[in-house]
Amino acid sequence: xxxxxxxxxxxxxxxxxxxxxxxxxxxxxxxxxxxxxxxxxxxxxxxxxxxxxxxxxxxxxxxxxxxxxxxxxxxxxxxxxxxxxxxxxxxxxxxxxxxxxxxxxxxxxxxxxxxxxxxxxxxxxxxxxxxxxxxxxxxxxxxxxxxxxxxxxxxxxxxxxxxxxxxxxxxxxxxxxxxxxxxxxxxxxxxxxxxxxxxxxxxxxxxxxxxxxxxxxxxxxxxxxxxxxxxxxxxxxxxxxxxxxxxxxxxxxxxxxxxxxxxxxxxxxxxxxxxxxxxxxxxxxxxxxxxxxxxxx
Length: 297
Fold this sequence. Notes:
alpha/beta, five-stranded parallel sheet, four-stranded parallel sheet, 9 strands, elongated
C-alpha cells in the first residue's frame, strides 16, 4: 500500500454494496486516527477539500463513506473522483466492499432493514440494481474486499493491516487506579480488587500521602501478598493482551481498585503501567487521587 509522501493527506473513500460492512470499515479507520465522515454527498467533496486545506495538518488522515444512500448525487461522484486524482496534496484510495447476493439477502433479513434501492421491498431487487450501478466504481477501486465469508473482526483486522502507518500505536493499554467507595469505572474492561493487601491508610503519617510517594509505594510493594498478586496478574495479562490486540481492540482499560483510590491501587497501577510499557503503548491515570483534597477544601 502506498500512503504518499509526508506532505500528502491520506484519504480513503469507502464505498460498495449496502450490507457489505461499511460501518465496520469506518469504525476501524476511526480507531486508526482517521477523521471520518459518513454518507458525504459527492457534490460536497470540493467544499470539504477546501476545509481540509484550511485546517493545515490537522486533517492528514480522512475517511469518507460515499454510497447509494446519496444516490441523487451519485452522478457527480466520478467527476469528484477525477478532480480528486488531480489534487497534488491528497493521496486518495477507494476501498470497495462487496459480498455475494445470498449473503447480502441474509444480512438484510437478519437486520430487518429495507434495501435503499428496493422499490418493492424485496432485498434482492435492490441488490441487483445496486451492483449494476456500482460496477464501474468497483473497477476504479484500489482495495476490494469480499466480506461474504468474513466476520466483522476479520474485516477489521484486514483494514487495520492495510491502512495503518504505525502498527505499534494501534493497541494501547490504559491502567487506571480507583476507589471502590466512589464506584467502579464504567469504561473498565478488566477490574482487579486489591483491598486484600495491607493498607497504608491506617499508618498515621502515610494517610495524607498517596501511592505516588516513595514511602507509600515501598510499603505496598514489600509484602509477600503483593509479590504473589503481581506475579499472577502480570502473567495473566501477558497472556491476555496479545489476544485482545489480535482480536482488533484499539485499547484495553485495566482498572485497579482499593478502598479510596489513594494508596494501594495507585501504587499497583503505576507498577503495571511501567511493566507493560516495553511492549505496548501504555498510559496510567488515577481517577480518585485528588478526591481527598477536594473534600477538605
